[in-house]
Amino acid sequence: MRLGAQAIKRRSFLARFVFPVGSMLVVMLALLVVYNHAWRLGSPLLKTILAWASGVPLFCLLYFSAVILYPMIYFRGGGPVEQVVGSFAPQAAWWLKEISRAGAYFTFPETLYYGLSQVFLVAFAGNVAVMGVAELVCRARARRRGGRRRVLTWGPVLAILIGLSGIYFMALWGDGERWFYVYQEVYRALFR
User: Fold this and answer.
1) Which of 17, 39, 174, 181 has the greatest number of beta carbons closer than 10 A?
2) What's the rounded Cα separation, in Å, for the pair 158 and 85?
3) Model's pTM, two decimal places?
4) CA nearest 86: which of 140, 22, 143?
5) Once rounded to an integer, what is the mean pLDDT over residues 76-92?
6) Is pLDDT above 70 for 23?
7) pLDDT of 147-185, one tens digit each?
8) How far apart are CA 144 and CA 78, in angstroms?
9) Which of 93, 96, 126, 90 is nearest to 112 (CA)?
């Protein structure tokens, strides 16, 4: 992949995709284990400290994983598909974990519908916007290194606009209540 005066060396699939995504998933798993099992220590103060110390980074990584993964994959020579798939991998793992938990209580169609709740969709929309910003930042960094690729194009700008629109309609419009009402009404129509 030639982005600058010097070509960005395209590393092996293992180095450019598996290692960054796998590392992120391992860190998130470790934080999740601490977050979920802090109560077992018996001390309410220690539980609170550990829950905050693991929960805040966990949810920041979950919602903003593209800030880290997108540039790592980009500057290791990964293509657009690898950048997008890699940026969504932590959210996909979280989504699969959550719907598998819901599947213990609900039917399969209800479980899949649960996977469309605004908690997941807002995270997805936010990640789309973050990937747009990350693409612009990566292009600007590559251009400073002597690259000729235009920084501002419609693709990243549209990603930012679509992501922010999704966040607005699902979380901010009417404090999220309007979207949740639509979600609940569709649920009632499908599963009554």
Assistant:
1) 17
2) 18
3) 0.84
4) 22
5) 95
6) yes
7) 777 888 999 999 999 999 999 988 888 877 888 888 889
8) 19
9) 96
Q: Do 3 and 147 touch, CB atoms closer than 8 A?
A: yes
Helix (H/G/I), strand (E/B), else coil: 104: coil
**Would you state the pLDDT for residue 22?**
97
Other Cβ atoms less than 10 A from the Cβ of 146: the count is: 10
User: Domain segments of the chain: what residues?
Assistant: 13-191
Contact between residue 157 and residue 132 where contact means Cβ atoms under 8 Å apart: yes
Helix (H, G, I), strand (E, B) or coil at 149: coil
Number of neighbours of residue 103 by Cβ within 10 angstroms: 15
The pLDDT value given to residue 150: 85
Query: What single-letter amino acid sits at 78?
Result: G
Whole-number Å distance between alpha carbons of 116 and 131: 21
